[in-house]
């Protein structure tokens, strides 16, 4: 059991630092239409963690096909180093999980295991196995799946897209997320964050209250 | 190679044996002959043992043969089928050596250099092959010599009656070139693998045996009797190289095992594979190379062979990870292994290899990176074996304009293109390209748009989306050679913060049709 550390920094930055030291995390879309955001959040975490041991992205076909295939140019612009990335397209869920377990055996690797919405809810055993494989070799696993069932993950995040911070309707700015921590084995859960992903710095910037208000302005203008 | 050993197989009754074996021959006592049209007449090109005993000979006309034996069964020659049968026999022979050369229409060459000891010596190997071929219904004669030419001559023209078995044994054991020359000299000149014309010419010149050709003055002989006889003689004596192309490309490194008792179980197969890997690893070490693709070939007692291939992403010659790949592959195909009759031999072919750069590992500093790279490639190999190489991928960026051609995925087993452009995040961190791309782009219904600008509202997947922010257009010209229409791309954000990569096909207001809109990708 890892000790319950109080974040050295408040807010998301402190939480992210603790997360980096734990083997298994989970993220999923907050609702229909948020799948791309959930993937973006997961990829961003992976991009901040990845080292020479590489990034494996194992997904079932169902998790790849529906929302379009991963696009290398976009991934690279997003901060994912392509020379460190191995994508595994598994036909079935079992194969995706098996591939993730194999990849987790690599010391220091970061492994994204992406599962589609179809199929049975995940068994607790599944996440326990992933946790075990990751603990054993000091690798990290990000489980991307829509379910909300029991899980051995240290944290679970529900992700929705957030409106751009920019006030200019001709400027999309940085990728932005509304992240809710729905489960946290190392501390309190329930925290909500609005995050901007800066791919160049490979860093999340947290938006604080004042700026959050500004987000709703375009809607108000339309009404 | 100086100590090369070649085994020539001669199948004098291939065409009739093939028919008898497949049950297409008369099942009574009638003789079977094969005929083909030659010079406007039907001639016998094959006779079975009964026909031969009745005095029917090759090159006899079919009419004469029928006159002698009215009841005979005559079948028209089918050289293609004959060749297929020969190829099947050649495939079967690969359990003795990877280098099997087709010598159509009725012969084979086997390079048995360094292989015979596995079969208890050359004579045992030779007899084993002849016996096994006979058991499969093929009459054959075989001989071993230092050159293909000499083996060919001995297989066809050395007397092979049981009484002369000892002579034959000596011939097959002929070690030095002098011995070969002595054994060759009493044989007829046809034993030199000559075309009919030069053979006839030599006979007219009064040269009937190879010995006479050997003694003939070289330069004047070549001038009068053609170069072929001299070349063939030199090849038979090993004075000239002979390039033969094996049925399958010869592996650069291979290891072979033959079992006294057939093996059946997957565990036994794995044990053998491990031994073979160790053998191959030793040979690879001498070359400073590692495996990129290896094939384990299991030779069934039933004559069928199974090939189990594994690919490796970076050259490897350590037995343990190699065995992991074979074990994984065997797990996948275990039910298809079908070892009903067991396997009698196994061979490991290193089909592709590459030099292992030893210096790269020992350099301090990059040691850790090299270890990581090795670890990654080990996982890539395992994943590829189980899921297939097309499912374990690395990104490939191309120097292309059209987004769908600007990048793709390739098997992680292969090598990256050296000249691929490197994409880095923009300094401002802004995404110009989506992380997911639809192939093909999905049509959307634009309900309102700024003329020559982005949509204000659009419908996709039965949901209407309000655009609150839009950037663009980014104009991407299509390949005019492929008649692609120019596209104007927009990055748009809807009310919920979802971001899309949309494009309009063609210029606004061009022609009467409303412009078509598509969503090509999704931003994170």
Overview of this protein structure:
The complex is a heterodimer of chains A (223) and B (524). Chain A has 223 residues and is of the alpha/beta class. Chain A has a single domain (11-222), classed as 3-Layer(aba) Sandwich (Rossmann fold). The longest helix of chain A has 15 residues, at 35-49. Chain A has helices at residues 11-19, 35-49, 61-65, 72-77, 93-104, 124-137, 209-215, 217-222; strands spanning 24-29, 55-60, 69-70, 85-90, 110-114, 140-144, 155-161, 176-184, 192-198, 203-207. The termini of chain A are far apart. Chain A has eight helices and ten strands. In chain A, strand 8 and strand 9 form a beta hairpin. Chain A is globular and about 45 Å long. In chain A, strands 4-2-5-6-1-7-8-9-10 form a nine-stranded mixed β-sheet, with helices on both faces. Chain B has 524 residues and is an alpha+beta fold. Chain B folds into four domains: 6-10 and 81-237, Reverse transcriptase/Diguanylate cyclase domain (Alpha-Beta Plaits), CATH 3.30.70; 253-382, Dna Ligase, domain 1, CATH 3.30.1490.100; 392-424, no CATH class; 436-522, no CATH class. Chain B contains 16 helices and 19 strands. Chain B has a six-stranded antiparallel beta barrel. Chain B has a four-stranded antiparallel β-sheet with strand order 5-6-1-7, with helices on both faces. Chain B has a four-stranded antiparallel β-sheet with strand order 8-11-9-10, with helices on one face. In chain B, helix 6 (148-157) crosses helix 12 and helix 13 (266-287) runs antiparallel to helix 14. The longest helix of chain B has 22 residues, at 266-287.
Q: Could you report the average pLDDT of chain A, rounded to the nearest whole number? A: 86
Identify the CATH class of chain A.
Alpha Beta
Q: Measure the end-to-end span of chain B.
A: 63 Å
Roughly how much helix do the residues of chain A carry, as a percent range? 25-40%
Q: Helicity range of the residues of chain B?
A: 25-40%
* CATH topology group of the largest domain in chain B: Alpha-Beta Plaits
Figure out the total of helices of chain B.
16
Examine the secondary-structure arrangement and name the CATH architecture of the largest domain in chain B: 2-Layer Sandwich
- Side by side, the strands of the main sheet of chain B go 14-15-16-17-18-19
How does the helix and strand content of chain B classify structurally? Answer: alpha+beta
In round numbers, the mean pLDDT of chain B is 85
Beta-strand content bin of chain B:
25-35%
Number of domains of chain B: 4
Query: What is the 3D shape of chain B?
Result: elongated
User: pLDDT under 50 segments of chain A (min length 5)?
Assistant: 210-223
What is the name of the CATH class of the largest domain in chain B? Alpha Beta
